[in-house]
Amino acid sequence: MVVVMAPGATEADINGVVSLVETAGGDAFVSRGVERTIIGLVGDVQQFGSLNLRSLRGVSDVIRISAPYKLVSRENHAERSIVRVGGVPVGPGTMTLIAGPCAVETPDQTLQAAQMAQAAGATLLRGGAFKPRTSPYAFQGLGEAGLRILADVRDETGMPVVTEVVDAADVELVASYADMLQIGTRNAQNFALLQAAGESGKPVMLKRGMNGTIEEWLMAAEYIAQRGNLDIVLCERGIRTFEKATRNTLDISAVPVAQRLSHLPVIVDPSHSGGHRDLVLPLTRAAIAVGADGVIIDVHPHPETALCDGPQALVNGDLRELAKVVRALPPLVGRTLTEAPDAVPDGVPA
Amino acid sequence: MVVVMAPGATEADINGVVSLVETAGGDAFVSRGVERTIIGLVGDVQQFGSLNLRSLRGVSDVIRISAPYKLVSRENHAERSIVRVGGVPVGPGTMTLIAGPCAVETPDQTLQAAQMAQAAGATLLRGGAFKPRTSPYAFQGLGEAGLRILADVRDETGMPVVTEVVDAADVELVASYADMLQIGTRNAQNFALLQAAGESGKPVMLKRGMNGTIEEWLMAAEYIAQRGNLDIVLCERGIRTFEKATRNTLDISAVPVAQRLSHLPVIVDPSHSGGHRDLVLPLTRAAIAVGADGVIIDVHPHPETALCDGPQALVNGDLRELAKVVRALPPLVGRTLTEAPDAVPDGVPA
Amino acid sequence: MVVVMAPGATEADINGVVSLVETAGGDAFVSRGVERTIIGLVGDVQQFGSLNLRSLRGVSDVIRISAPYKLVSRENHAERSIVRVGGVPVGPGTMTLIAGPCAVETPDQTLQAAQMAQAAGATLLRGGAFKPRTSPYAFQGLGEAGLRILADVRDETGMPVVTEVVDAADVELVASYADMLQIGTRNAQNFALLQAAGESGKPVMLKRGMNGTIEEWLMAAEYIAQRGNLDIVLCERGIRTFEKATRNTLDISAVPVAQRLSHLPVIVDPSHSGGHRDLVLPLTRAAIAVGADGVIIDVHPHPETALCDGPQALVNGDLRELAKVVRALPPLVGRTLTEAPDAVPDGVPA
Amino acid sequence: MVVVMAPGATEADINGVVSLVETAGGDAFVSRGVERTIIGLVGDVQQFGSLNLRSLRGVSDVIRISAPYKLVSRENHAERSIVRVGGVPVGPGTMTLIAGPCAVETPDQTLQAAQMAQAAGATLLRGGAFKPRTSPYAFQGLGEAGLRILADVRDETGMPVVTEVVDAADVELVASYADMLQIGTRNAQNFALLQAAGESGKPVMLKRGMNGTIEEWLMAAEYIAQRGNLDIVLCERGIRTFEKATRNTLDISAVPVAQRLSHLPVIVDPSHSGGHRDLVLPLTRAAIAVGADGVIIDVHPHPETALCDGPQALVNGDLRELAKVVRALPPLVGRTLTEAPDAVPDGVPA
Prior knowledge:
4 copies of one chain form a homotetramer. With 350 residues, chain A is an alpha/beta fold. Chain A has 2 domains: 2-63, Phospho-2-dehydro-3-deoxyheptonate aldolase, domain 1 (Alpha-Beta Plaits); 83-337, Aldolase class I (TIM Barrel, Alpha-Beta Barrel). Chain A has 11 helices and 15 strands. Chain A has helices at residues 11-23, 45-49, 107-120, 144-157, 171-177, 191-198, 214-226, 254-261, 270-274, 277-290, 316-328; strands spanning 2-5, 27-32, 37-42, 59-63, 83-85, 88-90, 94-100, 124-126, 161-164, 180-183, 204-207, 232-236, 266-268, 294-298, 336-337. In chain A, the strands form 3 sheets. Chain A has an 8-stranded parallel beta barrel with strand order 7-8-9-10-11-12-13-14, surrounded by 7 helices. A 4-stranded antiparallel sheet of chain A has the order 2-3-1-4, covered by helices on one side. A two-stranded antiparallel ribbon of chain A has the order 5-6. In chain A, β8 (124-126), α4 and β9 form a beta-alpha-beta unit. In chain A, α6 (191-198) packs across α7. The longest helix of chain A has 14 residues, at 107-120. The radius of gyration of chain A is 23 Å and the shape is elongated. Chains in contact: A-B, A-C, A-D, B-C, B-D, C-D. The B-D interface holds B 2, 4, 7, 29, 31-36, 38, 40-43, 61, 63, 65-66, 75, 240-242, 244 and D 2, 4, 7, 29, 31-36, 38, 40-43, 61, 63, 65-66, 75, 240-242, 244.
């Protein structure tokens, strides 16, 4: 942490900062410049934060240097992590395809979407039973009935299930069905939900807030980690910008940046970022090429009747191309498409 | 709703749209242009939304025209509403000052802040017992102990209490102490929380999401309203932009825009938007001048030791100026500073 | 300037930074922390910038501290400046109303708009002869013919003229007619134009880039100042954000922030920021209340036939209210409406 | 174009719109809804734009439907274009690598950078002689001396030269040396410069404004095209968002979106978007995979002494990897790395 003094700061002002820091058990190094004096602080940054140094007389600015997250940081955990979801690895060396319908609507629709996904190379099934919707008048998901459908389709296909939870009170219920909990972009700073997910015993896929900086995303992951759960997969899904030609602006650079700052796997959602079917395949290629540990894609057997986000779901005709892409591209970045775990008896995947 | 056909759309494509709309009970008016054909839809917009018209062959775009919110819209409720909080009105004709500490820390600090606020003209006390913080290592608030302190200070000062709730599971508890529930910017799309607040029986102050459009803000209010609670006050608190000189960018235009679209009162938080003490008074003046129904301001007896957001709290020296501003400016926009409700004998709340 | 070393930086890395800085004539102060070492640099910051410290081995970050602008900074010129435009002051103590048509169309339209403006209290006439338009198919202004109309209307009304210049090659021509050059938002980083305006001998109104930070805005002003022209008025006109309910988001906080960082006057354009007539008066009130040194407003005698930005022009019916606002509000912030310079006999400008 | 009437619009209001449109030679189709009436306009959209329909009584909104650009649109020119730069093609089927130093500093540095670039597979040389810099105190480029160096290096290497022009007055000079003019992000709406480039007789690389929508980018290209020059290559170089971990946010989706809307080639600048050496290779891979027609990359023999943007320049060690990437990835998206034109004997340009 560095304290920058204002041009007119007096010796007394400088001494005020130094003694406050020293009283708090830290060390303060004063560098007197021609125009300004700066004071470097060494010690427990969290504690300095509570000193309100910015409020002291003569202080112009306080600049934080260390990363504010610890458990998810690569500083203390240099090797990149692999998170296992029902036996399926997500992390370095592999590229995992997660696919399924945006919303679970019926057993048939979910099973068909899962089979489409599996045929394309997916090893994890996504599908929403609890849907956070901007409008209270929009379809909000089937709730527990949807979770049961997902569990049935898992039995049928052998694909572990990733599904969203939108309220801390539902975490236990959702965790009793799901192999991985998803926390969506609108809940990226719902701290009660993050903490509950941290105590759920299940891996968590944490979508980036559409307005969240990469640092805030990692802080949200830290909330989960702090409750004892480091099985976290970060998911970049587009941020909100002035550009309206796409639903969101996929921040493709966030993948290498987050992988450099954190040891957690980072995947990409090309369906929700682009918001349009035509963009899903190009963005999937970009995500794999940039080095993502996986992609999560909406597929739907009949998008024209989908209750949620039909315009962005891939259909049967697109899946052959998807199947090619997810096999051809990963080797160029030192990865292979993740295979289904071989130890899946009873409901063995194709 | 208007469906815009692609340049190469065929008659069959156009007929496809028309029959789908008519089957759904709507009317479709076809306008054939030189370059494009457009189809105007008349009927139940919610129902059209579920038709996935955008997925039909030959459709280039679908443009929605009606506002997607109903209960909070001014279209069906032309007169602007007044919301009463423990007897204190917020709405047209008055300008209500809400003030208090960002976080409740001790009984003394809270009482002193309340008295500072009251002396400046505040009629409602703000103060946080549950604090949503970006870092899990930051002070998270006193919880129920903080609520008890707020209730005691209300007894002492007669000021009704506004306090934040961050989890649907806490709504009942917070509502048992508070006169008004606050929903913060990070929970602006926490739909479970919005619905719980809608069932709480208490007025709700709904902060705009830092990434939220005005339309999304009104949709969030609609979630509360849909559960039977129209006692909602909207609070503009700054949005996230590329500019880093301020903590957030106060969207001052949002006040007249939201007041034109919705009948709900709209207030401004100049403390959190600017993030710096020096900006609080100028932004308060701007908020009153633009026509806000109120302002909510952080005050603290000793900001240099504040556990939360000290740099933006007003101190005693600023309050004389604040007291002047909140009395002098409202008459120029046809308002008067809200007075404490007269039915408050001996500092006892209604 | 502060150099932050990476966690694994060696003594050799640290020494490398120190010797490079010392070779360049600066001083380097090393603070060794538990996790990180930071090095404070003292000396000529511009020179350090060319050292590419960020490229050195072991360097994690380089943080600049001093303001990068000098001539327009308040650090070296504490008192706020007054800029005179044809005798009319813009700066502290007064609130100057600049008004006129967005584009000069005909002599009649321009004269009528000027008279409307003057009746409302305006002392400077705005009007565009060169219009930068997003579309090459939109009306681009009358060019020199428009400048002649403006000069005639100045003769008739005594109002000095503010008009835009869009190309460095036109600066001399425009300066031969205008009392103040306007540089628009799309040219906020057209450095050739800024430099030419700096050599024009005329005051310059510099609009903020719609994507420009306050720092970049001041750097653009520095380009003008560096050519010997300190008669610069900064104009906040809204920035581009995700919000689409308004044409731009007026960054009202930018006024006090820019006034704190720079000694130059700061005015507000409520017409182009809101983009809608209904917002002009509320935003004008907000601008005056926040402490702007002036406002610049579109007026048009017949906005329904305006060739440019008709929807945001004030009409006759609005001007009575504008006249009231610009007289009633400034005294509350220690200002008075700027009067026409008294040395204006027979409608002849000073 | 669609005119949306306000809920309370009268028959007279509707008739007013209809007659105004018909007087202007257009047709108006009225669709009366339960809540609202909408009017579809057919005819010359440019002319409707000048009617100021938005200002008419009873009009709530006016929605434009056709693309406002014509010459660069794919609507009238379905096949994607190939632009040739000194014989080197940029467009579908190939992936062209453009590389070189950010700024031309010395003959040696430029030649070395060109040879590094060529060895990695580049067929076009980039290098700046005129540099637009945020600070007037930063290195502004060598001007014509730099152009001469570029021409010499072209003679030596056979690589056609792409270089920036920042002022309309310099276009003729720069065009006399360069094979392609570059217009930078800060000049994306410098219309005088765009028009001059349109008359230069040279191909133009048009960078997207860092705040520019895709539509504005295409409108800027239309300014060039309107002057008779359709040899335009669009370059996505990152947009400005709230995220500060990268210099800009590379909008990777803009590539397929712009390719769908326009027939012009679209390339990507991974150096300026990320702003950090470590991001250049991942973003280059993403750009090729998403389907870009080329990439433009900073290389420098000694970035630690570079006068401009050293932190993002690739160095010798990175180039082996770059060479692999630009050869291995294009075939996966149906392209091959562009070869130097065969009519280049002995390193002499055509």
